[in-house]
Amino acid sequence: MSATFPWRNRGLASHLESLQERIEQADNSIFIDVFDLESLPSHEGELSGALVSIKSTFDVLGYPTTGGTKILNQGIAQANAEVVTRLISAGAKLVGHTNMTELAYSGLGLNPHYGTPDNPLLPGRIPGGSTSGGAVSVALNLADIALGTDTGGSLRIPAAFCGLTGFKPTQDSVSRQGCLPLSNELDSVGPIARDVATCRQAWEVLSGKQADETQDPIYLVVPTNFGFDDLDPIVKEGFEQALANIESLGIIVERRHIPQLDDYKELPVWQFSAVESRRAYQSLFDLSSDQLDPRVRKRMARGTEVSDEDFMQTCVLRDRIKGDYQAAERNTFLLMPTVACLPPTFESLEDDGVFDQMNLLCLRNTTLANVLDGCSISLPYQSQGMPIGIMLTACHGRDADLLAVAEKLETVFS
């Protein structure tokens, strides 16, 4: 199924004028920069009529790449990121640079420099991050697609919290040229949209691939040894309802223990972002600067605790777990809640201890796909009127099969 964009055949020019007005009236923490919609080039193509917001970690010619910080001072981008060029060539109209967690370093989306947009579905609660402004731009119909990054869930968490679909592709399927890094080992580039068809079309443009399914068998598996501790009761109930919906169609879902996930739980995953963000930015600004979000500064400082030898050992262990999982579970598609909790309130996160606890809980299930170098998608689901996400995770390179399965489940959930 192909996505359709409402403005393709009914006056994009007049819509852009009204869009500009709506952006001006919207929460000013959604966008860091609003682009001049008439000056940016566009072409006829697969995404003609699509409005796309761009996370502030990507270079857009003529605009600063802030990464959600005020300390980077990279200046005005002299060229587009490769994925931005692909979007423009496919006919997309770029709306603006969206807000994000500073340097993409948390799954909650808070930004003390530019503010944090409210959750459009649950006022007073966070939108999730780090692609916070991107998710909100789609939820408020200011964009059809949000281009973002995902190092440990930064596409899928805000998608789940805002009632959207978030797709983290296999890392090497989409270029990261012209994108600020957090962790070179774990960063992936992908879309947030309202449905799987739009995510599929966006991924095909971003990757230059066609989403052709294989004939390999597919097994839906709920792991019994990972992802289900400390679930909010509403999330737990919603996940069981979703499973019942799937099984009512005759789709078999297996529940079983996966040994490689026990090994994964022993991996110090935090080292990847802590060590690699320091390596990326230590020559560009003072990592101890008071101009950094104190919570980001604290996380980056943890990188000093890790020697080069220790980090190398962590990478070796990660590669072993990744290889073992790929060999044993090549045809397995994991089913889990995207996030273990409901979107926290802004007020609850004022306490640093609560912030740290909730950040880890929000990232727990999603980070697995990044460490395994797989692909993963969060589908929207409602439980007791609250937005939760149902997540499918597959092995490296199974993107097309994952999208196909997700489209089938999407019809069940809707």
How would you characterize this protein structure?
The chain has two domains: 196 residues, Amidase signature (AS) domain (Amidase signature (AS) enzymes); 172 residues, Amidase signature (AS) enzymes, CATH 3.90.1300. It contains twelve helices and eleven strands. It has an eleven-stranded mixed sheet with strand order 1-3-2-4-6-5-10-11-9-7-8, with helices on both faces. α2 crosses α5 and α5 runs antiparallel to α12. The longest helix has 21 residues. The two termini are 16 Å apart. The relative contact order is 0.14. The mean pLDDT is 94.
Please name the defining characteristics of this protein.
alpha/beta, 414 residues, Amidase signature (AS) enzymes, 12 helices
pLDDT < 50 stretches: none
**Rg measurement, Å:** 20 Å
Indicate how many domains the architecture comprises. 2
For the biggest β-sheet, the strand order reads 1-3-2-4-6-5-10-11-9-7-8
How many DSSP-defined strands?
Answer: 11
Largest sheet: 11 strands, mixed
CATH homologous superfamily of the largest domain? Amidase signature (AS) domain
User: Helical segment tally?
Assistant: 12
Summed over residues and divided by their number, the pLDDT gives a mean of 94
